[in-house]
Amino acid sequence: MQDQIRPVSHTPFQPAWWLKHAHLQTIFAKYLSPKHRLNTEAETITLPDGDEVQLNWLPSKTGSNNTPVIILLHGLAGDINSHYIQAMLAQCNTLGWTAVLLHFRGCNGKPNKLPRAYHSGDTADAALVITQVKRRYPNRPLVAVGYSLGGNVLLKYCGEQAGQNPLSAAVAVCPPLSLSACAKRINTGSSKLYQHYLLGRLKHSTLRKLEQFADFPLPLTPQQVRRFSSIEQFDEYYTAPIHGFLNAQDYYQKASGKAFLRHICIPTLIIHAKDDPFLSAEVIPEANELSPYIHYELTSGGGHVGFIYGSPLKPKFWLNQRIPHFITEQLAI
After folding, report:
1. Is 148 among the catalytic positions?
2. Catalytic residue chosen out of the listed positions 148, 168, 180, 191
């Protein structure tokens, strides 16, 4: 663990003039991001409760002791095909870094083995994977990068670990640090468009679970699941009870990463955009909520995991440069 965060330098993000609007940044990031064809090696990890998660490895080209191993955590309903995951894997490939994506339970295209799934505060699986990766590469620096839900998981994990964190640095992009406020935000105005998309994927996986488990432990019927009209309603009747919370508000209070920020003891970069259509302004931490190891960047634009700049003919993706730059600064490589 470093005694302190090293000095941070960066070029502030300026959104492309032709993608000023948050929705354009958010939506077009998926379609404008270059399509990368990278070969990864899948590995199945058996968890203590008998369930499984899948890792996808991008082997490094060098493997020297100062070459970092990057652990990626995707967002809600994300996977290896998510544009931001593909982009970071491509950057790691270019830099010769080892990288591995942790698919949360049931996110690798196959149903997981238990009725439960994953959630925004579920750090146990990530902790197990990080520990195993550290044992595999004991002499190489480990860095984790989390996006959206994965960013919240990562920051909560880092706060829980405090001074015992095996990671050398962390980056969280657009983490929903106040889950209750974000659930309300995505259920208002044009943000409902994103809720409809995410909720559709969550309903699909839950309906599949109802078919998979004849003795499903919750009193849920397919008709009830199909009638869910908001993320908050889904969390109230599935996410919270299946994972041992009293209700959605109990889950939101215990799983939100904001309360864990002051305990973080490794160099950490948090990136938010003011115009993020997924997130409430309540995710923005006060100065007294941040540990001295955190470098916080709040951009005026960028949407949700968008951050596109450049011309229409040559769009560029700021995160592809910003994240590796922070990592190389903090690891002094």
Report:
1. yes
2. 148
Beta-strand pair 268-273/169-173: parallel
Q: Is the dihedral of CA 103, 172, 261, 277 positive or negative?
A: negative
- Catalytic residue flag (residue 304): yes
165 within domain boundaries: yes
Residue among 74, 276, 280, 295 flagged as catalytic: 276
Domain extent, residue 198, equals 180-255
Q: 235 an active-site residue?
A: no
pLDDT in tens, the chain (333 residues): 555 899 999 889 999 999 999 999 999 999 999 887 789 999 999 999 999 999 999 987 666 778 999 999 999 999 999 999 999 999 999 999 999 999 999 999 999 999 999 999 999 999 999 999 999 999 999 999 999 999 999 999 999 999 999 999 999 999 999 999 999 999 999 999 999 999 999 999 999 999 999 999 999 999 999 999 999 999 999 999 999 999 999 999 999 999 999 999 999 999 999 999 999 999 999 999 999 999 999 999 999 999 999 999 999 999 999 999 999 999 998
- Rounded to two decimals, the pTM is 0.97
- Residue 223 included in any domain: yes
How many domains does the structure of the chain reveal? 2
C-alpha–C-alpha distance, residues 5 and 291, integer Å: 10
